[in-house]
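In response to a reviewer's request, we include the raw inputs and outputs for one of the modeled complexes. The four entities were modeled together in a single run.
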Amino acid sequence: MDRRKIKTKKAITEAFNTLITKKRYEKISIQNIIDEADVGRSTFYEHFGTKDDLLRSRCHELFEHIFSQNDEKTTNHEFSNCPFDPLSKEFINANALKKIFTHILYHFLQEKKIIKGILYGESKDIFLGYLRKYLADVLNRIELSKTDLPRDFLTNHIAGSFIEATKWWADGNFLISPINLGEYLIQVIKI
Amino acid sequence: MDRRKIKTKKAITEAFNTLITKKRYEKISIQNIIDEADVGRSTFYEHFGTKDDLLRSRCHELFEHIFSQNDEKTTNHEFSNCPFDPLSKEFINANALKKIFTHILYHFLQEKKIIKGILYGESKDIFLGYLRKYLADVLNRIELSKTDLPRDFLTNHIAGSFIEATKWWADGNFLISPINLGEYLIQVIKI
DNA sequence: TATGTTTTCGAACATATTGTTTGATAATAT
DNA sequence: ATATTATCAAACAATATGTTCGAAAACATA
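The model returned the following structure tokens for the whole complex.
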């Protein structure tokens, strides 16, 4: 890949990161982004078709990172308490679910300023759409109990609960630890 | 109130109702609304400051109606199974909660086309903000169990679960009955 | 170093939207 | 009958989007 391309892409995504911590997504214009990134108008459009494209690209990178297997290499010890294998086929119980949640929350905490910015307005839906998609694979491994609940209702409920808890967490400026929030979640979710 | 004012306001809100069933909120321009309502541009701005104002006005009316006491007068018998007194001070148990949910869901079902339209994109947040606000009063009457869960985490979780279930219901075109969905909810919420 | 390709840039352009202002016209209340 | 109030169309400034163009710079390759 051309060095210039990498540079511009980086400038644009960093401009986005800066702006999203200052004002909400819908108030950020493409003009703002190219001003902050200091690139030409047409240059932006050579990399991203729309503002949503840019956000989707950011979300894709983030979740690919979170749900990739080899991140126990991270220097942060706390992570090692809550590893999970996203490609495993094993059934998930309450304890496994807690580990998964906590693991994701640690990642969110690492980029909390940006995450919090994204968790408002329009950008929220796009971000949560990705989260829901990545969670779906994991949640489908939950063993269905004998209730008459449809599987998709249950997985939607659990994903929704995680999402709502995350928003609650961000709204309160990430006061409690990922481990605590994981525990809260397990206490309110019947599995 | 001036007859002309009432007429225009009605024309605008009905235009909004029509449009929201056809395309999502963010794609509806004020130009679209005044074309559909057949009113002048400046007239719109005499009634509503922004498009969001219009939506908020609609939400306010809807939730005032749902959470008002005297609506058992409705002709729909099914409602009478699930009345609730929003001004009561009594504690809420699982059964009371189920009645409240079912009651609200019946109202949503009555205007399902519009509700479904509103439940996408930007309009969703505004709508759900109102729902959350109105629910808060009720949910604060839930008796806290001996867990260490913060009250606002718990109420947020329950409101969130109801919201997610409602979206799931709307996405599936309101296939099951309000009573069924109310039962699903009670099955997944620990109280 | 020389050469051909790729990327960037700025400026201009068409198009669309928002929100405000104006004065004329018509409906309303009393 | 009259004073008030609501509506309307048309024009306006301001802002945003997405496209196009040719010139200039950075690049890969040999």
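As requested, we also summarize the result in words. Residues 2-4, 29-31, 41-42, 45, 49-50 of chain A lie near DNA strand D (CB under 10 Å from a C1'). Residues 1-49 of chain A form a domain with the Arc Repressor Mutant, subunit A fold (CATH 1.10.10).
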